[in-house]
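Researcher: Next sequence.
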Amino acid sequence: MTNPTIKVADIAFARLQAPDLDVMEEFLTEFGMFKSARTDTALYMRGTDPSHHLHVTHKGAPGFISFAYKVRSEDDLKALSAVAGASGIENIDEPGGGKRVRLRDPFNGFLVEAVHGVQTPEAIPVRDRPLNWSAEVLSTVGEPRRLQFGPSRVKRMSHAVLSTPHLKETLTWFAQTFGLLSTDVFYVGDRSNIVGSFNRLDRGTDPVDHHVLNCYHGKTAGLQHVSYEVQDIDDLFVGFNHLNRLDKYEHMRGVGYHVPGGQVFDYWLDPWGQMHEHWLTTRRFTAASPTNLMLAPKEHDPSSRFAQTIMPHVGDHHHHH
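Model: Next structure:
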């Protein structure tokens, strides 16, 4: 591959669409996010790490609008603005501010935003969850702090997963444009028959997650899920327990373990069937880590409901010119 246009620093947020922001805010709060800002037409949610938002919902028919990568400098924005079909550098007219370039992947029409200079608030401190029991009941509870009930506390965004009928072209475009590296590539039958690929950030010798983008071959193009890292294994299971006890949202898959990247996962659907993952990793990679080209595991099942739960791409929201 020729040198990429740039190497993105991180994934920043996903931009979804849903018809009811109150209902979405309730789901994301139970899922473990914190409200950063809300307008008449959009909801901005954050995690405990210092970033203004890692999830945006615009009011409208359910679907996904875009996801965003964070870049290192305005020079990187300038380089991306020269890519075919890219916007110029725009001021982001929404809470958190910053600048961006909007790009369209030419094979699926997915919108990808590259952002820089979005406000960085303070981190949110993570403390024990208080027990909401009566003083009378608590009078005999010597150590209430080990009884943890309540949502996970989302820390940061980890990745997005795309389904596409144009797998090889899409992978090449993301690698070339954003400097992503292949960690694991799955094939079925012949080694040239690539069915999925897990791609990580290139931060040189700094360790990164197994993937920031997973693409797999599917008949329908769209966003399959968005993934969020939680604090630790306790936090993941406490949140799983909380959502289970609430019995209000559909549990899709988990708690489980992905062998290739050493990840613990738990997948939940919002009220419109849009998939959100709680995620933790036990393993990190650098730019020098070799690629595994390997047989797709039996979990890779394009006919499964999991693989076919896809958010349609709903294009730009109206106030973005």
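Model: The radius of gyration is 20 Å. The chain is about 15% helix and 35% strand.
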